[in-house]
């Protein structure tokens, strides 16, 4: 058919009459084959172009507007969101956005998987918690009236026990970290003398924080919290009583082992008294009679105990000058 | 036409890919670090031209110090071996100190005021005099003509002349006994060179004499 | 545009030099004119340190040449300063606050009481040694017997010879150093000692044949030590004891001046004994008498020492006296008066610059150049001296 048409196209101007004749004969033959319609048939030289199919109309369903849009501002939120649940955009009247896209702002809350993934605390608003507390109040005992403020609390209950509970979704509800017990007590709340305090600090080592004055004993070697707590109590007791005990070898402690400089037992005092009584050798090392000796004592102790700096050296100089009765009258 | 265009573009790219030894591209402006030069620059119109250009960072030896002298710096660099600038600087500093000591000694020895005035106490000026006095005006270059080596006197470029003068001064100071220190010898050499004496000046005069002797070959310069 | 280093243009360069040169000559003349008016601004004509007071602070005075020869003949002035002295042809020392302070203490102190100790301290190069020289000159003028060690660390670092001591067993001797010190002592005090005519109070037996009997003069004892340097350390020990006794008796006044005293309390020396074991300073027989004389169990004298970071090897982090002396040294000297020496203040710096200009050490320096020097030296005296050397 195609070849025929091409040929027809080429020779159309010349042999139109011949072709028409030919077609007439062919159509006659076709007519005899289909004898139903008697109508005159239209000559169809070009095949008709297909009519464009109309787009199927999407059926619009009428969705009511999101509940969040017509929520009153003074509604009772804990009743809207009473418990922990996954985020739902229609229930939360907040313009939230979460996630990232290459261009433009972050996606909004509708159909936002990112918002649904993260846990939310919308059920733990302050009024909700307050209601919980109110409901739980009937099961609580009354707070002691004497314990008015933090100071009194820490005075009557100086020991603080810190342990943590863990709650999460796993086959077991027991977390190994829950066994750890911290016992904290202020050093000043313990009854100690100079020796006991010194020894206690040596025994404690880095368990004592000099900045906050707090001793922290951590027990984690037993599998249960109760055992650890008892162990922490035991440790505190042991270290306290041990610090009060005076061992025989402690008498052998020399000056080099002292952390601080004690002027009363030092060479400085001896030389001062010797200097004062010169040329007679001193009988007793009493420094009270020497003028300005106390100032000198403080200056030397500060110089050695607090570390040497320009200020302490100057202070020492002034003390010595007063001691030796010298005046510097030429200061500019 | 199209081909030609692509070709020129290629050439341009090639030139921009030329390998530079400096980390800074060649369009960066040299820094100006002397205060007086900066002031002069800001007064002139040049400052507006380079206001928005990028400037190379100043080198470690570039300083706006009052006591900076470009020629002394050059001298330090000439003395320097193996990049040990600290040592070279120390040597020059010490020899300047020694120059001052020598000159002050002479100053105190001098009896009349005129004699005293004639003694130059500034080591920098002594140094400049010494370098100028040792600077040759001619040099000899070798040329083979008909199997014979001729020495042709030719004028010397200022840079080369200064370098030669500095070299002579340093070499003259290096010829010393083991007990002598280099900076002391250098000081002595600089002082004597500033008075047109000493070995470095003699070497310069020898070179000039040789040039004088070979002046018959001077025209070979053009025959080459 | 600036000319780069690599391309000097000869003729313009020459022109510049001539210009600066001519300028220089003109300024030389100007300085001379100014000299007359500026003479009093940085110099003081008062060359006797006894009369120095606060009015002379930040001015230079000149040590007369004969006194300089007598006190500092065998050392005493720092080496680099000595070089300046020969170049400037005068020994000028600046009168500074710490020296004046100590001199005022020395003037007001009660000499029947035990001696006071003054410890000079400060950072490196602030002029501790020169302040000490000033005080030494004062003591010389006040007719003190001078017991002067110009750098204590020499004995433990660059000692000449080490020998086992005969007189004090268990100690090491430094015979040559001891002989040199005796020579130094004699040089400084020969005139005064011959005037005072001090006698030895007891017999000193050196060996079977040689002894110094009671009643011989101290100068003879010193002579003996210089001739028999084997016993020089013993002689020093005896000499110091005699000086102490004489001072207590009121026959003479003694001034102990030690530069770098903390070398005596150092825990490191280069002295080794026969078993190649390091010897501490207190086991050196030469150091023991000086430990003895720095105690305050005598009167009619004064002790001025310096502590320096460079004097010992083990403690160099701080310049403060307690650290440098260490525990033992502090206990030994305590109670002492620490005197801080600081960098130049503005007045001192200016007068130093003026002095250098006067001595032609630096010339035609502009005010901005002076400011630059002030900034790069931080007004430290030593650094200033170093920085002015090549200008």
TrEMBL record, chain A:
An example GO CC term for this entry is:
mitochondrial small ribosomal subunit
Molecular function terms, GO-annotated: structural constituent of ribosome
Residue ranges for the region (Disordered) are 54-75
**Alphabetical keyword list:** Ribonucleoprotein, Ribosomal protein
InterPro entries on file:
Ribosomal_mS35_mit, Ribosomal_mS35_mt
Provide the Small ribosomal subunit protein mS35 mitochondrial conserved domain boundaries: 175-243
Q: One GO BP annotation here?
A: mitochondrial translation
Which portions of the chain have biased composition (kind: Polar residues)? 61-73
- The name this protein goes by in its record: 28S ribosomal protein S35, mitochondrial
Species this protein is from? Camponotus floridanus
UniProtKB/TrEMBL annotation, chain B:
Gene Ontology CC terms: ribonucleoprotein complex; ribosome
What Pfam families would the database entry show? Ribosomal_S7
Q: At the top level of its lineage, which domain of life is listed?
A: Eukaryota
- The protein depicted here goes by the name 28S ribosomal protein S7, mitochondrial
Listed A to Z, the keywords are: Ribonucleoprotein, Ribosomal protein
One Gene Ontology term from the biological process aspect of the record: translation
InterPro entries from the entry?
Answer: Ribosomal_uS7, Ribosomal_uS7_dom, Ribosomal_uS7_dom_sf
TrEMBL record, chain C:
Q: Name one GO biological process term.
A: apoptotic process
Q: Does the keyword Nucleotide-binding apply?
A: no
Q: Which GO terms describe its molecular function?
A: structural constituent of ribosome
Q: Which UniProt keywords apply?
A: Mitochondrion, Ribonucleoprotein, Ribosomal protein, Transit peptide
Could you tell me where this protein is found in the cell? Mitochondrion
Listed GO CC annotations? mitochondrial small ribosomal subunit
Q: Which family does it belong to?
A: Belongs to the mitochondrion-specific ribosomal protein mS29 family.
Protein name per the record: Small ribosomal subunit protein mS29
The species this protein was found in: Camponotus floridanus
What is this organism's lineage? Answer: Eukaryota, Metazoa, Ecdysozoa, Arthropoda, Hexapoda
């Amino acid at each position: 058919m195609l070849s025929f048409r091409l040929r027809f196209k080429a020779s159309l101007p010349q042999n139109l009459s011949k072709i028409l004749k030919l077609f007439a004969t062919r159509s006659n033959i076709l007519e005899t084959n289909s004898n139903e319609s008697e109508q005159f048939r239209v000559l169809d030289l070009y095949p008709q172009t297909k009519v464009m199919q109309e787009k199927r109309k999407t059926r619009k369903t009428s969705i009511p507007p999101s509940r969040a849009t017509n929520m009153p501002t003074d509604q009772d939120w804990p009743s809207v969101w009473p418990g922990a649940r996954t985020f739902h955009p229609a229930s939360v009247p907040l313009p939230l956005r979460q996630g990232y896209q290459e261009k433009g702002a972050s996606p909004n809350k509708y159909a936002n998987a990112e918002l649904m993934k993260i846990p939310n605390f919308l059920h733990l608003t302050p009024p909700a918690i307050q209601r919980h507390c109110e409901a739980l109040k009937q099961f609580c005992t009354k707070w002691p009236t004497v314990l008015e403020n933090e100071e009194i609390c820490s005075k009557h209950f100086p020991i603080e026990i810190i342990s943590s509970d863990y709650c999460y979704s796993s086959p077991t509800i027991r977390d190994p970290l829950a066994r750890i017990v911290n016992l904290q007590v202020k050093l000043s709340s313990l009854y100690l003398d100079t020796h006991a305090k010194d020894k206690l600090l040596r025994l404690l080592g880095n368990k004592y924080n000099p900045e906050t004055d707090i001793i922290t004993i951590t027990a984690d070697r037993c599998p249960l919290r109760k055992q650890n707590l008892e162990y922490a109590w035991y440790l505190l007791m042991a270290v306290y009583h041990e610090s009060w005990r005076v061992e025989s070898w402690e008498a052998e402690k020399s000056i080099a082992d002292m952390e601080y400089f004690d002027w009363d037992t030092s060479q400085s005092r001896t030389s001062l008294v010797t200097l004062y009584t010169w040329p007679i050798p001193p009988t007793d090392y009493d420094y009270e009679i020497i003028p300005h000796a106390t100032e000198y004592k403080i200056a030397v102790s500060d110089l050695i105990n607090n570390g040497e700096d320009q200020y302490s050296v100057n202070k020492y100089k002034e003390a010595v000058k007063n001691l030796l009765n010298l005046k510097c009258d030429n200061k500019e | 036409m199209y081909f030609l265009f692509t070709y020129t573009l290629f050439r341009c790219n090639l030139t921009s890919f030329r390998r530079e030894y400096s980390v800074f591209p060649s369009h960066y402006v040299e820094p100006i670090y002397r205060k007086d030069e900066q002031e002069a620059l800001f007064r002139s119109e040049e400052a507006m031209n380079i206001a928005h250009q990028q400037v190379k960072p100043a080198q470690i030896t570039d300083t706006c110090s009052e006591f900076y002298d470009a020629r002394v710096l050059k001298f330090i660099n000439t003395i320097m071996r193996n990049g040990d600038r600290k040592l070279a600087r120390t040597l020059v500093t010490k020899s300047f100190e020694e120059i001052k000591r020598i000159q002050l000694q002479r100053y105190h020895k001098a009896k009349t005021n005129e004699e005293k005035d004639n003694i130059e106490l500034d080591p920098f000026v002594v140094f400049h005099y010494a370098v100028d006095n040792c600077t040759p005006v001619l040099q000899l270059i070798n040329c083979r003509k008909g199997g014979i080596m001729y020495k042709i006197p030719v004028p010397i470029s200022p840079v080369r002349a200064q370098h030669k003068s500095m070299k002579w001064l340093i070499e003259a100071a290096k010829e010393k006994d083991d007990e002598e220190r280099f900076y002391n010898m250098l000081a002595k050499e600089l002082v004597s060179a500033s008075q047109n004496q000493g070995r470095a000046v003699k070497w310069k005069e020898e070179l000039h004499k040789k040039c004088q002797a070979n002046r018959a070959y001077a025209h070979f310069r053009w025959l080459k | 545009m600036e000319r780069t280093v690599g391309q000097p243009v000869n003729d313009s360069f020459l022109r510049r030099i001539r210009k600066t040169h001519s300028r220089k000559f003109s300024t030389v003349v100007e300085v001379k004119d100014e000299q007359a008016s500026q003479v009093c601004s940085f110099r003081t004509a008062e060359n006797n340190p006894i009369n120095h007071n606060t009015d002379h602070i930040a001015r230079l005075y000149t040590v007369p040449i004969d006194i300089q020869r007598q006190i500092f003949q065998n050392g005493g002035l720092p080496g680099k300063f000595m070089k300046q002295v020969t170049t400037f042809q005068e020994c000028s020392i600046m009168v500074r606050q710490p020296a004046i302070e100590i001199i005022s203490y020395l003037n007001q102190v009660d000499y029947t009481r035990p001696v006071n100790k003054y410890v000079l301290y400060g950072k490196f190069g602030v002029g501790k040694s020169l302040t000490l020289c000033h005080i030494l000159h004062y003591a010389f003028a006040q007719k003190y017997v001078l017991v002067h060690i110009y750098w204590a660390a020499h004995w433990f670092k660059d000692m000449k010879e080490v020998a086992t001591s005969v007189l004090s067993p268990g100690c090491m001797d430094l015979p040559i150093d001891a002989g040199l010190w005796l020579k130094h002592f004699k040089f400084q005090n020969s005139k005064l000692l011959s005037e005072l005519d001090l006698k030895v109070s007891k017999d000193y037996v050196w060996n079977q044949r040689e002894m110094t009997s009671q009643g011989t003069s101290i100068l003879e004892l010193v002579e003996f030590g210089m001739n028999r340097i084997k016993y020089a350390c013993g002689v020093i020990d005896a000499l110091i004891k005699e000086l102490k006794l004489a001072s207590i008796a009121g026959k003479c006044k003694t001034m102990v001046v030690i530069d770098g005293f903390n070398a005596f309390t150092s825990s490191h020396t280069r002295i080794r004994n026969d078993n190649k074991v390091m010897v501490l300073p207190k086991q050196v027989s030469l150091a023991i008498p000086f430990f003895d004389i720095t105690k305050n169990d005598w009167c009619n004298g004064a002790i001025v020492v310096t502590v320096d970071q460079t004097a010992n090897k083990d403690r160099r982090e701080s310049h403060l006296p307690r650290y440098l002396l260490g525990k033992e040294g502090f206990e030994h000297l305590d109670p002492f008066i620490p005197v801080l020496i600081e960098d130049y203040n503005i007045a001192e710096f200016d007068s130093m610059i003026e002095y250098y200009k006067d001595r032609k050490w630096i010339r035609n320096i502009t005010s901005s150049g002076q400011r630059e020097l002030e900034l790069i030296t931080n007004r430290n005296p030593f650094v200033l001296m170093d920085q002015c050397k090549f200008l």
